[in-house]
Amino acid sequence: MSENSIEIVEATKLYGKLVAVDAVSLQIKRGEVYALVGANGAGKSSLMRAIVGLAQLDAGRISICGHDTKKNLLRAKRHTGYLPEELLFYERLTGKEYLRLVAGLKEADTMQVEDEIEFYELKTVEDKWIGGYSLGMRKKLGLAAAMTGRPQVLVLDEPLNGLDVEMMRKLRGRIKREQERGCTLLVSSHVMDFVERTSNRVGIMRAGRLVAEGTPEELRNQAGLSDAPFEDVFFGLASGKEFSLKSDK
């Protein structure tokens, strides 16, 4: 068995004449936390949607836990939990009903539903329709659904949007625990402090291409910004322009 949970080879995704993902190749090892970052429109969400089987590649291939997503999509999906950036729910289900539905589809232990409701602090709204949930409640419900069934691979697109500081901290600890049990995580976020603190490696995308990759420390060295906030490192590498802290003065 490959040591990589996610393998992407020359992945290309087109929307008409727009090249959203341009021949991207990367490998993510089992138990690794990999952050995929870039400006809006860089191609991150398009690549993530292709990884979880919601978008079909125009060229290249993707495999999840050894299963090619074109040939064995259902098997690949059985290993994967996904949080999309744009959340869609059955608005007239309660939070608990929705998580029980997800658990049933994943053939997961329904006791985990109670655990996720407790962890994401949804107890007070578990019996209320999702249509009345705030953005933060919807985000926590989406995270709970993604983690139900304890998947081997978690793909989390902008998991921090709508969360308060306390829940962000809890999520960082949860990501660490998921990693410790052997789960592989692919995370996209605009919060660079979160990216630096949680990730083993970071991939930076620009105009559909992977333009830089490495540990946070390696990327700092590459950008020549060893002591700057990580958002400055990201800006320097993602923009493709020569960058200096002096430019903000």
Structure description:
The strands form 2 sheets. A 6-stranded mixed sheet has the order 6-7-8-3-9-10, with helices on both faces. A 4-stranded antiparallel sheet has the order 2-1-4-5. Helix 4 (111-119) runs antiparallel to helix 5 (135-147). Strand 7 (153-157), helix 6 (165-180) and strand 8 form a beta-alpha-beta unit. The model is unreliable at 243-249 (pLDDT under 50). It has 249 residues and is an alpha/beta fold. Helix content is 35%, strand content 26%. The radius of gyration is 18 Å and the shape is globular.
Question: What is the CA-atom radius of gyration, in angstroms?
Answer: 18 Å
Span of the ends, CA to CA: 52 Å
What order do the helices and strands follow?
EEEHEEHEHHHEHEHEEHH
Return residue spans where pLDDT drops below 50 for at least 5 consecutive residues.
243-249
Main sheet strand line-up: 6-7-8-3-9-10
Estimate what percentage of residues fall within beta strands.
25-35%
Query: Percent of residues in helical segments?
Result: 25-40%
Mean pLDDT: 93
| Beta strand count | 10
**What does the largest sheet look like?**
6 strands, mixed
Question: In one word, what is the shape?
Answer: globular
The class by helix and strand makeup works out as alpha/beta
What's the total helix number?
9
